Amino acid sequence: MNILSKDLLFAARCAERLYARKVEQDPWRLRFHLMPPVGWMNDPNGLSWYQGAYHVFFQYTPTNPEGGLKLWGHYRSKDLLDWEYLGPAIIPDCPRDCHGAYSGSAFVLEDTMHVFYTGNVKYQGNYDYIHNGRGSFVLHTESRGGVYFGEKECALDMEDYPEGYTCHIRDPKVWKDGNACYMILGARREDDRGGVLIYSSGDLKNWRLLREMTTENAFGYMWECPDLFALGGNTYLSCSPQGVEKEEYRFQNVYQSGWFRVEGDWKGECRLRDFTEWDLGFDFYAPQTFQDASGRRILIGWMGIPDADYRNPETARGWRHALTVPREITEKDGRLYQYPVKELESLRAKETRLENEKEVSVPEGVFDLEIHAPDKDFCEIHIGGELKFIYKNGMMELSFQGDSGAGRTVRRGRITELREIRVLCDTSAVEIYVNRGEAVFTTRYYPPAQNMALALRGCSGENILWNMRAIRLANKTQEGERDEII
Ligand code: FRU
Hints:
- Belongs to the glycosyl hydrolase 32 family.
- The chain is mainly beta.
- The chain has helices at 3-24, 481-485; strands at 39-50, 53-61, 71-77, 82-85, 101-109, 112-122, 134-143, 153-156, 165-177, 180-189, 194-201, 208-213, 222-231, 234-242, 258-264, 270-277, 285-291, 297-303, 319-320, 322-323, 327-332, 335-340, 348-353, 360-362, 366-371, 378-383, 387-392, 395-400, 410-414, 421-426, 429-434, 439-444, 452-457, 463-468, 472-475.
- It has a 6-stranded mixed β-sheet with strand order 19-1-2-3-4-35, with helices on one face. A 6-stranded antiparallel β-sheet has the order 23-34-25-30-31-32, with no helix packed on it.
- A hairpin with a 4-residue loop joins β3 and β4.
């Protein structure tokens, strides 16, 4: 810790205390999704299983719900239900990260958690900050215990990147395969094509460029937050491309997030196939995956997106954005599926059967709904009067009437057949899983009433509705440490 980290930590703590009450009193506060204690949240970072606990770090600006200087906030849980907030973990306090501790990953080796992240620096001058004027360094810091981090070392400097790239190279994800460790970085090339760089290392200190990877035809100008993993015998590359053109049923958001199947050997000859979006809703971006002790691959996404033309009215209440629930990723026949982790089912409280074409009112709009046998050609879900999800002959549509979408309008997608639907609704967040995660729609939603009307049409099979309990959240930063800081 230096004088800068101490003061930034103090500013974070002051903001957390100053806005805590306001956020706590907000009826739009989420009950079973992770959201910022106060202020702004974006990408999930450093997702990991370490020393018997799940660690979820996140891009965090406690001092301003509209965003600003990025720190890493930190949540920890043994069971994905009972969470502790542990305070800012990585603070931008050195010359190579002074304009933001940007996204990165946590890699566990023996008893140490290694964090690799992007140190963002914008030099003063007449620069465009794409081709010049920006430092994007890979910084490495270690922790025994996963809470306090040591000295930062520069793992990759600007001159370690190959020719032909802009200054937009960031978001390192590190993993081990055989005897070597690998790091993947998202990049924007000088020819305005997105891609990734993959480095390898035997000691986590010296990194050597292994390869570059992109699509045969240009697919956007920048790929953020890449993640490469094997599942069910295939390799997948997840990333968040920017600059992809809108289509009628795909790529409707300003930026995308999805996965390619990697055909061939990712270390050698290979091709990227079939980009599929992770989520077709309005609010999803920059997800990251990790493997837990049981071998599950779990994904958490940012329930938000940069540069969208719709609003987030919770900002006026002292906070903005959230994370999706943890989703287990499975693969079948070269395709990925996402579904809420099983643990969430233990939050289910009162269970009721929901009849087709009969409206009910759900207190505070906090529920889990399973529609087991929707009608084959048509079904409709109405939530809170203004949100409607329709399936009709292969077409899915999520739309808002009125202003409770805060500028969100309509999002569409296609599937070949409809088998089942699950809806998680959490005051101002809705996640809709179709066919056990073959397609997902995630959106924020700001209905004025606290009780939500819920009605189904074309759902003549069994529909089960549960009221949901909240996850438990303890703030472990309030006492003790404060004295040390002051
Ligand atoms: C994605 C992203 C990352 C970057 C971070 C900064 O939303 O732009 O590429 O590291 O956010 O907060």
